[in-house]
RNA sequence: GGAGGAAUGGCAGAGCUGGUUUAAUGCACUAGUCUUGAAAACUAGCGUGCGGCAACGUACCGGGGGUUCGAAUCCCUCUUCCUCCGCCA
């Protein structure tokens, strides 16, 4: 949620920023509507507070009158309070109505994109912030996509997943499973070495948590929901890990707070079709190591760069060709102010696969989380939150299989060999 | 799943036979005095949201609802924790 105060004082700048998301004047009227509702809300509260103050002081008087035995005067005062109570319930009803209107409207406003976010409608307008530094690998016409390699070496079985659960639930086996576990350990070790505290969080979260990180209400349909217990399966470790700091006021000196967590992730994602969703390209359950940081507002963009650099380091060590995209306004998620996507080139499918998304949410997420810090003057301010995948496994495996295929089998990158215990899938 | 007990400000902990509680007190924390420095002692400050330039007002004692002129305090309900029983990797 955008901060109301910022919206009131900096409306024009926010409107300009929202235009990058394709918001025209027809949609931007919501900003003025919000301010009008907020004005009403303030007036109602002032009115209601006055009634409450009067009731409180009358009630005290009544107490005194009873003590001194003045029953009749007490009865008269009671009658006065009685009429006040009707007014109070009226204004309170209006007040809560305008509060919920305000909140509903605020939830409809996405984050204001950062000044560097390019204009654009869709993923086709994303800007290549950093192209791959060399030529892309060309394995020729013989190169197989990962789903065929998986079958050839019996390391991944999508059909078995259909039998056990349904489409989009991969079953890894043998060296495929070992590779999966190796990648998780490699990513976690790298994150620890970079100063992130490792977290093992719950995989199911309650409604408050899903709301605080912004999955609810807008992405309701993307999460699996356990109705009987009113819990949601997490779509990313971001949700439980970030919620560690819900309703927390930290010290300024605590920054940066760096957390990492490996979890399985569950996404319903009403699928697309064809090659986009084939094999591991898009699945309902996948593994991901997430990195999360909470940072002082003055330093969050340095931190964003550092997080991107961390992910780049992982890809370099895995010897995978990648490029970095700066998402345009139309492709930016509602909560993000600036997002870099890292895409890996997968030589079997001859296409780029998104393996990481690193974002700065500025105060948008912290506002719902109520994650604050006390600054030097003792004033409470919202922190900036950032997160990124480091990395999502399924597509990394897809790219590793495709790019490293040889006539003798699939080569394991050197850095992973101490984790897998083998150098070749054959 | 069954029975009983509990939930108060960063922590500990009063209040809980309803009315100067605008929540005592201690610890921790912050600033100052003293000191060569530290400790101790002393002085002051020290929860959060909303409204207000401010004074101040208002709300919050696990969540929600109710009774009452008035609720931390009484009632209902939900959640969580503790003790005991049952089941269980």
What does this molecule look like?
The chain has helices at 4-9, 11-19, 25-67, 71-107, 146-153, 158-164, 175-193, 207-212, 238-243, 300-317, 364-369, 393-403, 414-420, and strands spanning 127-130, 156-157, 171-172, 197-199, 204-205, 225-226, 231-233, 248-251, 257-266, 285-295, 322-326, 338-346, 351-362, 371-374, 380-382, 384-392, 405-406, 409-411, 424-425. The protein is 43% helix and 22% strand. The chain has 2 domains: 4-107, Helix Hairpins (Orthogonal Bundle), CATH 1.10.287.40; 123-425, 2-Layer Sandwich (BirA Bifunctional Protein, domain 2). The longest helix is centred in the N-terminal third of the chain and has 43 residues, at 25-67. It starts with a helix and ends with a strand. It has 426 residues and is α+β, with helices and mostly antiparallel strands. The structure holds one RNA strand of 89 nucleotides.
Topology, please?
Blueprint: H1 4-9, H2 11-19, H3 25-67, H4 71-107, E1 127-130, H5 146-153, E2 156-157, H6 158-164, E3 171-172, H7 175-193, E4 197-199, E5 204-205, H8 207-212, E6 225-226, E7 231-233, H9 238-243, E8 248-251, E9 257-266, E10 285-295, H10 300-317, E11 322-326, E12 338-346, E13 351-362, H11 364-369, E14 371-374, E15 380-382, E16 384-392, H12 393-403, E17 405-406, E18 409-411, H13 414-420, E19 424-425
Parallel strand pairs: 4-9, 8-14
Antiparallel strand pairs: 1-11, 2-3, 5-7, 6-7, 9-10, 10-16, 11-12, 12-13, 13-16, 14-15, 17-18, 18-19
Helix pairs in contact: 3-4, 5-12, 7-13
The structure holds one RNA strand of 89 nucleotides.
């Amino acid at each position: 949620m955008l901060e109301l105060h910022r919206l009131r004082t900096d409306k024009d700048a926010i409107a300009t920023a929202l235009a990058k998301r394709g918001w025209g004047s027809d949609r931007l009227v919501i900003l003025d509507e919000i301010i009008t509702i907020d004005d009403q809300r303030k007036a109602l509260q002032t009115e209601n507070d006055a009634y409450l103050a009067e009731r409180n002081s009358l009630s005290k008087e009544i107490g005194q009158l009873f003590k001194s035995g003045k029953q009749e005067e007490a009865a008269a005062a009671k009658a006065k309070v009685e009429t006040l109570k009707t007014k109070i319930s009226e204004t309170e009803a209006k007040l809560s109505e305008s509060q919920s209107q305000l909140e509903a409207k605020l939830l409809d406003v996405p984050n204001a994109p950062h000044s560097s976010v390019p204009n654009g409608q869709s993923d086709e307008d994303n800007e290549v912030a950093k192209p791959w530094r060399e030529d892309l690998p060309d394995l020729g016409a013989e190169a197989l996509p990962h789903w065929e390699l998986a079958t050839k070496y019996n390391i991944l079985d999508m059909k078995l997943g259909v039998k056990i659960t349904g489409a989009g639930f991969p079953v890894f086996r043998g060296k495929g499973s070992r590779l999966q576990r190796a990648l998780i350990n490699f990513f976690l070790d790298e994150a620890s070495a970079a100063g992130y505290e490792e977290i093992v969080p719950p995989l199911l979260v309650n409604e408050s948590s899903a709301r605080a990180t912004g999955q609810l209400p807008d992405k309701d349909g993307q999460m699996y929901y356990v109705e009987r217990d009113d819990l949601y399966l997490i779509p990313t470790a971001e949700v439980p890990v970030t919620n560690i700091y819900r309703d927390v006021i930290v010290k300024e000196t605590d920054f940066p707070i760096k957390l990492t967590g490996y979890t399985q992730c569950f996404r319903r994602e009403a699928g697309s079709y064809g090659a986009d969703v084939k094999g591991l390209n898009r699945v309902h359950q996948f593994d991901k190591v997430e990195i999360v940081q909470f940072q002082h507002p003055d330093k969050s963009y340095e931190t964003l760069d550092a997080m991107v650099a961390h992910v780049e380091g992982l890809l370099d060590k895995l010897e995978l060709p990648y490029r970095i995209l700066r998402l345009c306004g139309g492709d930016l998620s509602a909560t993000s102010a600036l997002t870099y996507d890292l895409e890996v080139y997968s030589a079997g499918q001859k296409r780029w696969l998104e393996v990481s998304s690193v974002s700065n949410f500025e105060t948008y997420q912290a506002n719902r989380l109520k994650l604050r810090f006390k600054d030097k003057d003792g004033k409470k301010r919202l922190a900036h939150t950032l997160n990124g995948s480091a990395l999502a496994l399924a597509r990394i495996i897809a790219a590793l299989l495709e790019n490293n295929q040889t006539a003798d089998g699939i080569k394991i990158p050197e850095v992973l060999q101490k984790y897998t215990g083998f150098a070749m899938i054959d």
